[in-house]
Design brief:
This protein is α/β, with parallel strands linked by helices. About 45% of the residues lie in helices and about 15% in strands. It has nine helices and seven strands, in the order H-E-H-E-H-E-H-E-H-E-H-E-H-H-H-E. Helix 2 runs parallel beside helix 3 and helix 4 packs parallel to helix 5. The structure holds nicotinamide-adenine-dinucleotide.
Length: about 290
């Protein structure tokens, strides 16, 4: 019998409890990367907690698909999908304008659009390195800057959440660009927390562990590369990573969404400049 069953704990891979009281009622959120994976999970979590949500992605079909799910769950009028490349300054500014035109203001912003090109250092193509910096750092900068401009002008404070990774604290092997950009995001958040604190804008990072469900980062080629790196078969990759965690639980998008809802809500009103590690106990460094 598994130790989880014996102790009456939740079974590995079980969904995280989803329902949250409407702590974000009347709040407006913009989420980038909301067409897939963790961005989508966070957009869904914020909507479930009562927020109106703009789902922003370069992949409009993905964002529309996520929006359709939200309309089915909550009815119309609470979500908006916007095609936007986060590396394009004008497109980012337009996405924020559209959100405010539709919902009146902006209280929460989550930057989640990211990529993870993984190669050993000696084989790393410079164009892949540059693209990762462009999306994971410049994209986060442009989105954070626009959110800060809007929230400062509104004068009501706000919550800015950067989706980093445990790899921003504890590097992954053969993942130079991801490690560097995810660490960079953490330090961006700390600096912005200092800068924006006087305006009541809180800035925090979430550093998730490996989240497989719904993620396009964890595509078959990436899994293959991880299997090679670890000397295991592709089908052993998920159990291998779950086995690295203290809890032995597969992290679900809802687990990360729950942290985002808390960081977006007034319950975390004194939390800023922090990294909340959401990894079932894999990384213990700060
Ligand atoms: N899945 C994980 O294990 C994991 C763990 C820790 C952190 N993260 C972070 O979560 C975020 C999302 O990862 P995911 O696994 O859900 O990936 P994903 O590929 O499933 O989702 C990323 C989304 O970002 C969008 N995107 C990519 N480039 C864009 C651009 N230029 N402009 C706008 N949108 C763009 C994609 O279209 C996609 O919908 C990333 O920042 C990643 O670093 C993921």
């Amino acid at each position: 019998m598994s130790p989880h069953k014996k102790k009456g704990l939740k079974k590995k891979g079980a969904a995280a409890p989803a329902a949250t009281p409407p702590v974000l009622k009347d709040r407006v959120a913009l989420v980038t990367g909301a067409g897939s994976g963790l961005g989508r999970g966070i957009a869904e979590g914020l909507a479930r907690a009562g927020a109106k949500v703009a789902l922003v992605d370069i992949d409009l079909a993905g964002a529309e698909n996520a929006c359709a799910g939200l309309v089915r769950e909550h009815g119309g009028g609470r979500c908006l999908c916007i095609r936007c490349d986060v590396t394009d300054e004008a497109q980012v500014a337009k996405a924020f304008r559209q959100t405010v035109d539709e919902f009146g203001e902006l209280n929460i912003c989550v930057a989640a659009a990211g990529i993870a090109p993984a190669f050993p250092l000696v084989e790393f193509p410079v164009d892949k390195w540059r693209r990762a910096l462009e999306i994971n750092l410049t994209g986060y900068f442009l989105v954070g800057r626009e959110a800060a401009r809007l929230m400062t002008a509104q004068g009501k404070g706000g919550s800015l959440i950067l989706l980093s990774s445990k790899s921003g604290l504890d590097p992954s092997k053969s993942n130079s660009a991801y490690n560097a950009t995810k660490a960079g995001e953490i330090h961006l958040a700390r600096g912005w927390a200092l800068e924006l604190g006087p305006a009541g804008i809180r800035v925090n990072c979430i550093a998730p562990g490996n989240v497989f469900k719904g993620s396009k980062i964890w595509n078959p080629q990436y899994i293959e590369m991880c299997a090679k790196k670890r000397g295991i078969k592709p089908e052993e990759v998920i159990p291998y990573y779950v086995g690295l965690t203290a809890l032995g639980i597969e992290i679900q998008p809802e687990d990360v969404a729950n942290v985002a809802v808390w960081l977006a809500s007034d319950a975390s009103r004194v939390i800023t400049g922090q990294v909340i590690v959401c990894d079932a106990g894999q990384v213990f460094v700060r």
